[in-house]
Specification:
By secondary structure, the chain is α+β, with helices and mostly antiparallel strands. It is built from ten helices and nine strands. Helix 4 crosses helix 6.
Length: 304
């Protein structure tokens, strides 16, 4: 470990340092919901990780055509980009807690992309550790007042603990590491996409109609479009276009969750020329209209 310049004059070479970390770690859309028999979420996938804890009842999840029958206490991790459906067929209904999270740390994402345990059955050691953290989130959802800064730190601390557990159990599996150059360019491409997307959102330039071109990003980094596509896919497991679509979908869902915004206003804020245009795109993304999505999620209490 290289000792920073200001400390070299009075610290010995034998001094030990913890490495600096500067990761973008995000927890969002975490919620608890009780649903009736017949409830179903259509085929979808997310840019983020999805962690589901079954509190009561049972749920059937089809994850990349693999069936998981989940019961009370089971935990399922759905990695980014994995197509899945969730359904409740039990007469007594289902209560679940779910959290979406994302980490822009290349090595972690690569380790998790194809070498991650997805099902954590009730009673297992890792299940118990994950459940302990997730139940603290569930307890926070019982608050009737506004979340405090202290609550928000506890939410984030819980996510970091979960990431440590997942990284611990996935690091023992063999993995061919990407080169530092590939990791570097993939991170720069992701940051460029997010930066341009956020700029368009703030300036109301039209997230619905304005495309972000990978060719322009590649040119700004002085690499070829083909190399940009290859490196991004290798690290993130999806194409830059898919990454951008997931950013748009996440923004749309966050706005629809706000009951004081009517859907025409949401469409305008996202840059679509009309509610009908936005509704068609949202249905392509999720299999349901914005109004159907708002109705389905209306009884949920979130923390963001």
């Amino acid at each position: 470990m290289i000792i920073p310049e200001p400390y070299r004059s009075y610290l010995s070479p034998e001094s030990r340092w913890l490495p600096a970390t500067d990761w973008n770690v995000k927890l969002f859309g975490a919620h608890m919901q009780k649903v009736k028999q017949g409830w179903k979420v259509p085929l979808e996938s997310h840019l983020a990780f999805e962690l589901i804890l079954i509190l009561e009842g049972s749920q059937t999840t089809l994850l990349e055509n693999i069936r998981y029958d989940l019961h009370a206490g089971d935990i399922l991790l759905i990695p980014p980009g994995c197509k899945h459906t969730n359904e409740c067929n039990q007469e007594q209904g289902l209560t679940y807690f779910i959290a979406h999270f994302n980490v822009d740390e290349v090595l972690f994402r690569q380790e998790m992309s194809g070498h991650v345990q997805m099902l954590f059955p009730c009673g297992g050691e890792d299940n118990q550790r994950l459940t302990e953290v997730m139940m603290k989130w569930v307890d926070l959802l019982q608050h009737k007042e506004e979340y405090t800064t202290s609550d928000l730190f506890r939410m984030q601390a819980g996510l970091l603990e979960i990431l440590a557990i997942l990284a611990e159990q996935s690091s023992s599996r063999s993995q061919e590491a990407v080169s530092p150059t590939v990791a570097h360019y993939a991170s720069l491409i992701a940051e460029a996409i997010k930066s341009r997307f956020n700029a368009g959102n703030i300036q109301r330039e039209g997230l619905g109609d304005k495309e972000i071109r990978i060719e322009e990003i590649a040119a700004s980094l002085q690499i070829s479009p083909g190399y940009a596509l290859e490196t991004f896919q290798k690290v993130y497991g999806i194409s830059p276009r898919r990454y951008l679509s997931e950013l748009k979908l996440h923004e749309a869902k966050q706005l629809i969750h706000q009951p004081d915004l009517n859907l025409t206003r949401v469409a305008t804020m996202l840059g679509y020329s009309s509610l009908a245009h936005f509704s068609r795109q949202f249905r392509r993304w999720t299999g349901m209209s914005p109004s159907e999505y708002r109705q389905t999620m209306g009884s949920i209490r979130f923390f963001e």
